[in-house]
Each structure stands twice: as C-alpha cells, then as structure tokens.
Design brief:
The chain is α/β, with parallel strands linked by helices. The protein is built from 17 helices and 14 strands.
C-alpha cells in the first residue's frame, strides 16, 4: 500500500492545544451562567456580540415585523427548502413504528416512540446567517412533534437576521431568542430566571458551542458532538477535473478558519490540477481570507494506488461530508462505513445537502461517523419498551425462569419478585429466597 500526501494539515497536537484553551473558557462561562443566570447571559452577550436588548426573547409582533423584511423571492426559496426537509423527515418518521408482539401466550412486549418533551435548537449566525440550520433542527423537531421547541441564534450585524427568524418561526419554534455562543447553549440547558431549561440540545456551531454541548451532555441530551465543518472529495479522472474538485473543497473551507478539506484520489495528475485550481480560485472567491487559512492549515491531498486504498483511508478519516466522483460511486456507497453523509456523482454537491435537497446537514465530525449518524427526526424520539403478562400460566412460567436466573447472579431480592408471582399465580410453595422448581419437577 503506497499512500502519498502531497499536502498535509496541522498536526493533531496543535489542534489539541486549541481544544484545551476553548475547554477552559467554556467551563468558566457555563459556571457563571449557573451561578448568576440572566445577568451572566447579558454580560456575555454584551461582551461577545455587543448586543443588549430589553429582552432576548422575540415577541410575536417582533417576529412578524422581521418576517415582513424578507423579500417574496427569498421567502419562497426558504419555504421550498423547508418543505424538502420536512418531507424527508416525515418519510423517516413514518418508517419508525410502534410495535407490540406476543412471543408466548400471555406475554406482551412492545415499544413506543415518544418525542423528547423540550428541545433547544441552536442556529449559527454570527458570521454567516445559517438560515438552513433552522430547517434542519427546528422543522425536524416539529415533524417529531416535540411539545416545546426553543431556538437561539446570535445577532447578525447587531440585529436579528430576518431570514433566520422567519425560518425558525415557520419551522415551528415556540420561543425564539436572539443570543449566541456559550450564553445561548448554557441558558437553554441550565436555565435562567426567564428561560426554562430544555431536555435536549441540537444544532451546529463554532468550537465554543460544540464544547459547551460536550460539557453539558448528560445533564441534557445532545444530537451529536459537532466540530468544525469537514469535507472530503473522493475523485478519479473519469468523473472529475481539477476545477470541480477545487470548487467542492473550497466550498466547505469557507465555513471557518479551521475546516478540514481533503482530496482523496488515485490520480496524481488530478491532484496537482486541483492544487493549481485552488490557488486560482483563492484569488477570486470573496471569502478567500477564511478559505485560504482553512486550506493552508487544514487542507490535505492524498494520492492512493487503487480504490481499495481510497476506501480504507476514507473510512479512517470518517469525514463529515464525502463527495464521491468516480467510475464506481455506488461501490463506495455499498462499502463505506464511516462518514457523515455521502454525495454521489458530479451532479450532486455538498452545498445542496447543506441548504435545500432535504437531508439533514447537522452531521458527525471528528471521526464521530464511526459510531453515529447525523441529526434526523429519530434523534428527537425516545424508544421506550413496555411489557405486560395477562395470564396466570405465563406469570408462573416466566417467574420460575426469572427466579432461577436471579439466584444465578446472587440477587435474592430480585428472585423474590419472581417467586411471589410463582406462589400466587402458579400455586407453588417456593421457599423464601429459594429457586422456583423446573416445570417438569413441579408437575
């Protein structure tokens, strides 16, 4: 196996050092919110966003006024995108059925899918107003029928962004707050004098938002551990060229200063053409300051000898977005196991997935694709089991097995829960703390 790195990214050690600094800042911020509530939230909003309204919660009148500022054309586009997300989320929800079975006479087992009772949706917007994130979190929670959906987004250029607020409201948010970063995540999860805490947090964000969710996990549920946007392009010469690869890499690198972008190919010619195209595009793309730093520090180009090597490297990296443009796209679909989402073929692209096509764009990063998928309607549902025994015969038979198995583990109290049913419903005089007899012995 010969794998050549034509371009490498910053070392893992450097990235870990950045994470340590973020962790300390977030820990202090969350502790302050827990101690001082609304006052801490206001001070942090003033400090980080230079924003201090009379109330961070928008009234219905304020929401309607902001929505009126969205053009008819933009509103139509927004509604189209939200419809695609809702339709796919509804199809997913329809696939999740409650079940009830009777595996033996008199024994009924089942499960119910119950919505999380309250969720806090974070919609990034300090640098770029992430309208689409409102569809992905708020609208999907609405499809899941979550009874209380609150949404937070930072101010954009000193004020609420009308399009983001419109998307939140149309998506089904019951409460909308204009606040960002640690203060938004902390307020939703911990609660303050004016904000009741939620049971679950969802949505992407910067490193501070991601770390705040990580530290609060357990106190509340979260959708997943989401770090900076990641993209991987898997390409060969049969389906892609340097311009296409470079465009797809920089299209995600512009997200932030630390967004990994990786080209994985079996063609050194394509790899070098892509590097030339990246240099050319960085001279004309308006977000070059961000994209260039991201590419220089976190971009990689990896050349493999064959497709099996490409598959192994791709699964090891487990990138959030994987754009595949080869002569065997469906082969990668069949064999890849670790990723956030796949985008198959040159006609497809990550931006469509981010904004409009209908799949959810909140996806696992930092190799989390090895053990979880992304946000979807099922994340808002809890699958709860139940059981019921309806006959004396079943109570005695299951109880006898339970009695003996509990004692096998040394749990006498557990065994007696079973034994008392064997005595009452089976008519057997089982000694206290002793095993219920085998069926044949009882007869």
């Amino acid at each position: 196996m010969t794998i050549r790195h034509l371009k490498t990214a910053r070392s893992e050690a450097d990235r870990a050092d950045d994470d340590t600094k973020v962790r300390a800042i977030v820990e202090a911020g969350l502790k302050d919110i827990e101690t001082r509530g609304d006052m801490a939230v206001r001070e942090m909003s003033e400090k980080f966003d230079n924003y201090s309204p009379a109330s961070y919660k928008l009234s219905l009148a304020e929401i309607e006024d902001l929505m009126a500022q969205v053009s008819d054309r933009d509103m139509a586009d927004l509604k189209f995108a939200q419809e695609q997300v809702r339709n796919f989320a509804q199809a997913q929800r329809d696939s999740m059925l409650d079940i009830e079975v009777e595996p033996m006479p008199g024994v009924i087992l089942g499960h119910k899918n119950i919505p999380v009772q309250s969720v806090g949706c974070y919609v990034p917007g300090g640098k770029f107003p992430m309208v689409a994130s409102a569809h992905m979190s708020v609208a999907t929670a609405s499809v899941a029928k979550v009874p209380r959906i609150i949404a937070c987004t930072p101010p954009f250029n000193g004020a609420p962004n009308p399009a983001v607020i419109a998307a939140m409201h149309l998506g089904g948010a019951h409460e909308i707050y204009v606040m960002g970063g640690i203060q938004a995540i902390g307020a939703m999860a911990i609660g303050t004098e004016t904000i009741d805490p939620v049971h679950m947090l969802v949505g992407p964000g910067n490193a501070f938002v991601a770390e705040a969710k990580r530290q609060l996990f357990g106190r509340v549920g979260i959708d997943l551990f989401a770090g900076p946007t990641e993209t991987m392009v898997i390409a060969d010469e049969t389906a892609a060229d340097g311009e296409l690869c470079a465009t797809d890499l920089l299209g995600q690198a512009e997200h932030g200063y630390n967004s990994p972008a990786v080209l994985l190919t079996n063609s050194e010619k394509l790899a070098r053409e892509t590097m030339i195209e990246i240099d050319r595009l960085l001279e004309i793309i308006p977000t070059a300051d961000t994209a260039r730093q991201s590419w220089e520090e976190f971009g990689e180009i990896i050349v493999c000898d064959n497709y099996d090597e490409m598959l192994a490297v791709a699964d090891d990296i487990a990138s959030e977005h994987v754009q595949i443009m080869t002569d065997r796209d469906d082969w990668f679909l069949e064999h890849m196991t670790c990723y956030g989402a796949l985008f198959l073929g040159p006609r497809t692209n990550v931006a469509n997935g981010d904004k409009v096509i209908g799949t959810n764009h909140t996806l696992p990063t930092k190799k989390a694709g090895r053990y979880t998928g992304g946000l979807w309607v099922g994340k808002y549902l809890k699958t709860h089991s139940y059981q019921k025994i309806t006959t004396d015969e079943a109570a005695a038979e299951i109880g006898a097995y339970g009695s003996r198995l509990c004692l096998l583990e040394g749990f006498v109290g557990h065994a007696e829960q079973c034994n008392v049913r064997v005595r009452r419903y089976g008519g057997l005089n089982v000694p206290y703390g002793g095993p219920a007899p085998y069926k044949d012995a009882a007869e």
